[in-house]
């Protein structure tokens, strides 16, 4: 069995966009609340709570705050898992750093360990949520007989239309990750469907048609069979435009409306350059 992911761009209407945005914003609130709970729990019991404890806290938060009942609660299990793994990783790193300083005699063994906890997520840094059940990929035909693929999500009344219609699902869908990307002047929405396929590519590592691909700067693509594709230097061709937008952004006040607009324009330009390069690589391969 192998794990494959199909990424599709979504085309939600206004009501569906509001539902996705509300779910992301409310999940960010729960994420920050769980980090605070982990800090208080460790300060009192000197250990982290389990994922089951975090799931119970999510249920309590959902009962105490009516606004959190609007989005689906199925994504809270993923939040608990992310918070637990992040806090455990930070705790292990802090322990290694404390032991290293004690071995080098930089601090005394009696000095308490300083823990660097995960950062709280702001509205611009929390961009996705995951659902491991209650979603469905539906394929129907319109009036012209053309196949139309839609995605059904919990707490959203109508299915959401998808852009990627031709690529088939690589297996049985298991997890759906909904993400929101800031394109500068608007948001784009994406769905990554994690599927479990029966074909495992590791079972046939010496397939005669397999070709190794190396991505670089001097050459865009270099394959193991000798094929080379030159770099089209998209970045250098748009360097003048990047400098112009960067100067405008540096001249503005960063925490104002105009500063956010100019930052979004700069981010949109970088995204456009990345998409051009990615599109050429996918067309070649």
Can you offer a commentary on this structure?
This protein has six helices and ten strands. With 285 residues, it is of the alpha+beta class. It has two domains: 206 residues, no CATH class; 72 residues. The strands form two sheets. Strands 2-6-7-1-5-4-3 form a seven-stranded antiparallel beta sheet. It has a three-stranded antiparallel beta sheet with strand order 8-9-10, with no helix packed on it. Helix 1 packs across helix 3 and helix 2 crosses helix 3. The mean pLDDT is 85.
From the helix content, strand content and strand pairing, which structural class follows? alpha+beta
Strand content: 15-25%
- The percent of residues in helical segments reads 40-55%
Q: Please report the total strand number as a whole number.
A: 10
Mean pLDDT: 85
The main sheet orders its strands as: 2-6-7-1-5-4-3
Anisotropy-based shape? globular
**What are the segments in which pLDDT stays under 50 over at least 5 consecutive residues?**
none
Total count of helical runs of at least 4 residues:
6
* Biggest beta sheet attributes: 7 strands, antiparallel
Number of domains: 2
Termini separation (Å)?
A: 25 Å
């Amino acid at each position: 069995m192998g794990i494959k992911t199909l990424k599709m761009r979504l085309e939600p209407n206004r009501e569906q966009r509001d539902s996705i945005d509300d779910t992301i914003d409310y999940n960010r609130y729960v994420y920050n609340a769980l980090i605070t709970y982990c800090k208080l729990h460790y300060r009192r019991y000197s250990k982290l709570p389990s994922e089951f404890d975090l799931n119970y806290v999510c249920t309590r938060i959902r009962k105490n705050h009516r606004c959190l009942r609007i989005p689906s609660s199925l994504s809270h299990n993923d939040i608990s898992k992310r918070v637990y793994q992040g806090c455990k990783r930070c705790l292990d790193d802090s322990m290694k750093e404390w032991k290293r300083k004690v071995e080098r005699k930089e601090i005394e063994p009696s000095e308490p360990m300083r823990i660097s906890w995960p950062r709280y997520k702001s509205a611009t840094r929390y961009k996705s949520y995951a659902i491991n059940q209650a979603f469905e990929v539906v394929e129907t035909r319109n009036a012209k007989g053309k196949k139309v693929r839609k995605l059904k999500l919990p707490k959203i009344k109508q299915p959401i239309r998808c852009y990627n219609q031709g690529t088939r699902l690589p297996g049985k869908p298991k997890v759906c990750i909904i993400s929101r990307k800031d394109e500068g002047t608007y948001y784009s929405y994406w769905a990554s469907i994690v599927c479990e396929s029966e074909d495992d590519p590791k079972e046939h590592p010496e397939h005669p048609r397999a070709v190794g691909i190396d991505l670089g700067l001097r050459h865009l693509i270099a394959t193991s069979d000798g094929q080379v594709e030159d770099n089209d230097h998209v970045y250098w061709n748009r360097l003048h435009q990047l400098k112009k937008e960067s100067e405008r952004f540096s001249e503005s006040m960063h925490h104002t409306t105009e500063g956010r607009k100019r930052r979004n324009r700069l981010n949109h330009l970088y995204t456009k350059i990345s998409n051009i390069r990615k599109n050429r690589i996918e067309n070649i391969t």
